[in-house]
Amino acid sequence: MSKKFRVFATCxxxxxxxLLRQRGYEVEVYPQPEAxxxxxxxxxxxxxxxxxxTTLRDPIDAEVLEAxxxxxxxxxxxxxxFDNINRAxxxxxxxxxxxxxxxxxxxxxxxxxxxxxxxxxxxxxxxHLTRNNQWGYWHPYLPFLGDExxxxxxxxxxxxxxxxxxxxxxxxxxxxxLCYDPAYQNHDYVKAIQEMKDLRHARGICREKTxxxxxxxxxxxxxxxxxxxxxxxxxxxxxxxxxxxxxxxRTLRIMKPTAYLANTSRGPVxxxxxxxxxxxxxxxxxxxxxxxxxxxxxxxSPLRDPEIEDRCRLLPHFASAARITRLSTDPNKGxxxxxxxxxIDVLEGNYGGDVSKMPYVxxxxxxxx
Length: 369
Ligand code: GLV
Known about the structure:
Rossmann fold; binds glyoxylic acid; 33% helix; alpha/beta; seven-stranded parallel sheet; 13 helices
């Protein structure tokens, strides 16, 4: 490698940073755990770096890209979601950006499933009872009961990678599944899952016959006992099928009053003010959130209302937070490894230097020949 590439990372991505340095890269890592101020990112880019490692909390837009005009060659994001990166601006400045899809798919789906299970079986309230010495007896229905997950109907909202992985997890719990996706349907996958379900029934593994199908948003929400959200955040004007506030007063009100909602996608897909009301006024039975309209969750969020504490689980954007998923240096296992490889592919001109052929680049359309 003839050129020594300069890289600024807005967060530490572990051992992968050392591996970049061993390749001869000069890498500066922002030392704090919080996001750096935007001005600092702009200044670093202006100083002539070749590559920028970012994550979901860093706004990357025309201001940043303008600062890197003629020098910045790649933005490598450690996250699958990239709503913090203005794709139209990146295309205009012809800066490829990469993301870390696939390696967090199973981790995120299992976390969504665990969130729903913890919510429905009231694990948080039950443990508090035990710890607070309020567990005075074993009784058939006191002090409260939860709801089983097995055999229930779940709506899978969004059937991209993570939605499909969630379907796979739910198959193991013999759930019926109502699938909805405004932009992408995978009928072959759904057919294969139905075949697995039929086999489980035919071979006596599951007593009841169960089913899976695509349907409308309305049918999915009115028919489900559980709803799990797996769509990207797309604001008005970014897509013909925007997902901003897909869950709002109207859609929350059509869910069953006994239903539970889990969101591991992006916070703004759910209107939090409407959700807080839905929980308080019991339009739905509960919600578990891993993502928020504003992160970290502000101290005055209505979701913190003690009145809804028993039915509102709040997690710190944590679904992909498993050791191997986050930090493995192997691009086929870890977000860090995939992030570093995306950066290397662009800077070192892998794939014959054809950006449109590089697997982790998102905005290939800007480079199609
Ligand atoms: C996490 O939310 C991610 O997009 O990777």
